[in-house]
Each structure stands twice: as structure tokens, then as C-alpha cells.
User: Fold this.
Amino acid sequence: MKKILTLTLILIMCLSIASCGRTTNNTVGSDNNSNIQGQQSSATGKKENKILVAYFSRTGNTEVIANLIHESVGGDIFKIVTVDPYPTDYNACVEQARKELESNYRPKLATRVENMESYDVIFLGYPNWCGTMPMAVFTFLEEYNFSGKTIIPFCTHEGSGLGNSVRDIARLCPNSTLLDGLAIRGSNVRSAQTQKDVADWLHKIGMAE
Assistant:
């Protein structure tokens, strides 16, 4: 009788061990599958672009648009500043801008992006001066290598839109991808409509949902 009980206990223990072994193997299998799926998703997922919003702004209008874009797309923001400030008087500033354009002058910049090579997408903002970008923005575009990067222009104006600035950007950065730009009247930059226009534009060019 004791031998029968002993054999019965041994048989029950063996069955329990086998059952535990099968449960453990199934759990490990599930974890392995999860890890593989995660690796595949990471390997085939889209690369997250690193974004820089760079802008030149004398009166603050373009800066307002730059901040709206930055709030929507994230990334870093950078202000282009000249060593010698432009005149605060409107007429004097227009005259200097005209002379710089006619002489193809390149103002020296007081600020610099230290890691430009790390950015994939550059939002580039400026006021429309004399039908194009301020010459300070020409300096900015010539100080870095934008090959392979995407440049997205935006400007403030009082009736001239983007002017010839898109053509000039394309000429200075022939190996970059140029997306459709945005032009906002300077007198309207702080309106609710401008916020909507910026949001709609970002959605249109695929930079916001």
C-alpha cells in the first residue's frame, strides 16, 4: 500500500513539473515575439526630422510668426542678428536695405548656429525688403551648407508677399528641397486669423496634423 501511495505521489509531482515547464516556455515565447515586433517597428518607422526655426526680425512682426511656428512644430528657434543694427527709423532702414541690395552687400552676423549639420528642416523667416529677403538672410544662407536639407520660407510684408525671395533661396541653396512658403501682412500678425493661417499652412505642407 505504501509503495502504491509513493508511486502515486511521484507521478503527481512529475505531471506538475511538466505542466510548469510548458507554461514557462509559452510566456518566454510571447516576450520574444513582442521584442521582435518592437524592433521591426523601430527599424521601419519614419525618421524624426530635427527642426530649426531661424528668422530675422527688425520690428518683431516676423518674430511673432516664428514663435507661432515653433509652438506648433517644436524643434529649436534661432534669431539672426547683425553685428551692426539696422536703423530704427523706417525711412532710414529702407534706404540702407536698398543700398545693401544694390551693392550685393553681406552684413556680418552676431549670432551663429553651432550645430547646423544636425538639422533636417529649416523654417526660414524674414520681412520682405525691397522685393526679397534682407541681405542679412543672404549672409545666413551662405554661412552654412544646406545640401540635403528642407527649407521652408515664411515672411511678413505689406503687399509684396514673398516677392523674389523664394527664387533667391533656390539660387543660394540649389541642393536643398524648398517647400511652399507663407506670406503674412505685418499689420495682421497678431490677429486670430493669422494663427489659423499658420496652422492651415503647416497642415498643407505636411508639418502638422
Observations:
- Confidence is low (pLDDT under 50) at residues 1-45.
- The first strand starts at residue 51 and ends at 55.
- The radius of gyration is 30 Å.
